[in-house]
Amino acid sequence: GEDVEQSLFLSVREGDSSVINCTYTDSSSTYLYWYKQEPGAGLQLLTYIFSNMDMKQDQRLTVLLNKKDKHLSLRIADTQTGDSAIYFCAETPGAGTALIFGKGTTLSVSS
Amino acid sequence: DGGITQSPKYLFRKEGQNVTLSCEQNLNHDAMYWYRQDPGQGLRLIYYSQIVNDFQKGDIAEGYSVSREKKESFPLTVTSAQKNPTAFYLCASSIVSSETGELFFGEGSRLTVL
Questions:
Q1: Nearest to A95 among B6, B101, B104 (CB)
Q2: What is the pLDDT of residues A25-53, one digit of tens each?
Q3: Phi, psi (5° rounding) for residue B84?
Q4: Res. A66 pLDDT band, cuts 50 70 90
Q5: d(Cα A43, Cα A64) in Å, to the nearest integer?
Q6: Tally of CB atoms within 10 A around A5
């Protein structure tokens, strides 16, 4: 069945780059997503990438997609303490269906 | 401002009691979803509804029930049959015809069973 895997923790220093990795299993996924969750809050969409793209850049965020290996990554440049949160990778099996989420990567940024 | 409102934010209940979590959206979205979040387990889908008066079970529907009598509302009842109900519950909505399939989330409800 569909599955999305992420490492659970990442710790970086302020100003460094953070790279959060994700693997997924459903090769028919049209869009892949990165969501951010701050403590005690809901999830907010950070960015998404269409499956026919290799890369998408949005200010400090860079998303890389390797469709052959079913690997997605999120790079945050110049990481700030405000970036500390849980980051979820998600895929959609098809139009109008619920997203499938990974377990989330907790990013801890130290000053 | 348009958005999704979940209430209550915190809820305590005794074992054996049913409890209903509210989810209301004014985004005019067709589809609504309930997810459960446990530490280290990510989000797991409980129920979802793509249209009024219709809903489908997700991966962990046992011990839960929902209704979708109005487009704006999708309440979740946690019944006494749910063996381990203490968790953070998230409601979301989306436009069924959306190209991107993006979900919009509420701020969550934390249920603690005493």
A1: B101
A2: 877 778 899 999 998 899 999 999 988 89
A3: -140, 75
A4: very high
A5: 21
A6: 14
Neighbour-count burial of B27, counting CB atoms closer than 10 A to its CB (0-12 exposed, 13-18 middle, 19+ buried): middle
**Residue A99 at interface with chain B, using a CB cutoff of 8 Å:** yes
CB neighbours of A58 closer than 8 A, spacing ≥ 6?
A: A47
Write the single-letter amino acid at B47: Y
pLDDT tens per residue across span B53-112: 999 999 999 999 999 999 999 999 999 989 899 999 999 999 877 777 889 999 999 999
Query: Please, are residues B78 and B62 in contact by the beta-carbon 8 Å criterion?
Result: no
Cβ atoms of B69 and B22 within 8 Å: the answer is no
CA–CA distance, B23 with B33 (Å, rounded to integer): 10
State the Cα–Cα distance between residues A47 and A62, nearest whole angstrom. 9
Given a cut of 80, is residue A95 above it in pLDDT?
no
Quote the CA–CA distance of A90 and A102 in Å, as a whole number: 6
Query: B58 and chain A: CB distance < 8 Å anywhere?
Result: yes
